[in-house]
Design goal:
The complex is a heterodimer of chains A (about 200) and B (about 220). Chain A is an alpha/beta fold. Chain A is about 35% helix and about 25% strand. The chains are: A alpha/beta (about 200), B mainly alpha (about 220).
Chain lengths: ~200, ~220
């Protein structure tokens, strides 16, 4: 279970979010909405444990994520604006190496299966430099699928994806939630997800 | 997990080997300029050789510092690394190890060849290699602190030099001291021991400082 207690974040001198409280149980989806510059990404980074909140705290299974530190990291998968895909490595190398570093190494065939699912089987040995923006995003999605994290934190997950890929990612997120996972998604588009419970958090400027 | 990280950095370095070669060539050229500039007198050359090689090594190692975290920071992989269940300490250590293997070890290998230009005797060349082997990891370790602190800043390269070069001074003194001693026919042992002690000390503490700096920079 994820809880935010009286969370506040600032960017420079500006207060973006103050006194935010919410909690989410397994299987639940949190949709984070708000205009550009309203602090969605800052909030997601705090929830991922990448930056510290200006006030309040985030709790995972009842414990502050600050004290959990690396133990929390193993339950989180964060897909940021930047894909975190290495240009010099091929799609399959990106996937295998990032999952190896994260401690759940994939075999060659497992990585191939994920890339097949994402429709990248033909491009799997091209360096990521020569992939299109949407294809790189798909590689980043592959990293999400290869992790066994319970909490997915997704920042504008659908950017630069085509219709097929959007449908695919909806299905992945749906499956993740159905398997008792949690997801927090910042988005401008309607996700149309068939989750059991959806919470909307609206940030304003 | 640690192995995967080092492996990743080695592959990346191989795919961008021009960067690494540039560092090595820089080292070779700087060292080779001195005999040309100072003149061919054997005695003078032999006296300046330890200092020249060591200063060139310091400068060459500075060139590669920006790459320890810079590229990963730009494409978002650094964030992903920090979000792995591995401790930041180990991540930093892995990246430093890879940087040392890629950018510093070639300098150590090529240094004896360059030493020949200065007419150094065999035992002095051996001391030079040993002192570089002990000293260059310290350069990487201390340098990583500067690299992490200046991550994402404009003019980061100049700032790194200003931050890190003063901290390199002990290594420079012990390193050149060792080679100098061996050129003069005395024992380089005390200097090498001091270098070793510096290495142990920085191996323990530098990654801590780098981790803290990284967390600040990424935030």
């Amino acid at each position: 279970m994820l809880e935010a207690v009286n969370l506040g974040c600032t960017r420079g001198d500006r207060r973006l979010v103050t006194g935010l409280n919410f909690s989410a149980r397994p299987g639940e989806l949190i949709e984070l909405r708000g205009p550009n510059g309203s602090g969605k990404t800052s909030l997601l980074r705090i929830l991922a444990g990448l930056s510290a909140p200006a006030e309040g705290e985030v709790r995972w299974q009842g414990e502050s994520i600050k004290s959990l530190a690396e133990a929390y990291s193993s339950s989180v998968a964060y897909l940021a604006h930047q894909n975190g895909v290495k240009d010099e490595l091929s799609a399959i190398e990106n996937l295998r190496i990032s999952s190896g570093i994260a401690g759940n190494a994939l075999s060659n065939s497992e990585a191939q299966a994920i890339l097949d699912m994402l429709g990248l089987s033909r491009q799997q040995s091209l360096p990521a430099r020569s992939l299109s923006a949407g294809q790189r995003r798909r590689v980043a999605l592959g990293r999400l699928l290869s992790s066994n994290a319970a909490l997915w934190i997704l920042d504008e997950v659908l950017t630069s994806l085509d219709d097929t890929a959007i449908r695919l990612s909806r299905r992945f997120i749906g499956d993740h939630l159905a398997n008792g996972g949690l997801a927090i998604i910042a988005t401008h588009q309607d996700l149309d997800l068939a989750a059991e419970r959806i919470q909307r958090i609206e940030l304003s400027r | 997990m640690f192995g995967w990280l080092v492996w990743r950095d080695l592959i990346l370095a191989w795919r961008r080997r021009a960067d690494v070669l540039a560092t090595v060539f820089f080292f070779v050229i700087v060292v080779s300029l001195f005999p040309l500039g100072v003149g061919p007198e054997r005695e003078t050359l032999r006296t300046i050789a330890p200092g020249v090689v060591w200063v060139a090594a310091l400068l060459a190692s500075m060139l590669s510092l920006g790459r320890i975290f810079g590229n990963d920071y730009q494409d978002g992989t650094l964030e992903q690394l920090l979000l792995t269940p591995q401790s930041t300490y180990m991540i930093v250590l892995g990246k430093i190890l890879a940087q040392w293997l890629v950018s510093e070890v070639p300098l150590v290998v090529i240094a004896p060849l360059l030493g020949l230009q200065f007419g150094l005797a065999q035992n002095s060349l051996a001391t030079m290699v040993v002192s570089l082997l002990l000293g260059t990891p310290v350069l990487s370790l201390i340098g990583s602190i500067g690299a992490a602190l200046t991550l994402g800043l404009r003019a980061a390269n100049v700032l790194v030099a200003l931050l890190v070069l003063p901290l390199y001074i002990p290594v420079l003194i012990f390193g050149t001291g060792a080679v100098q001693a061996s050129v003069n026919g005395s024992s380089p042992r005390p200097y090498l021991l001091l270098l070793g002690a510096t290495l142990v000390l920085t191996l323990v503490f530098a990654p801590l400082a780098t981790s803290a700096a990284l967390k600040i920079s990424v935030e």
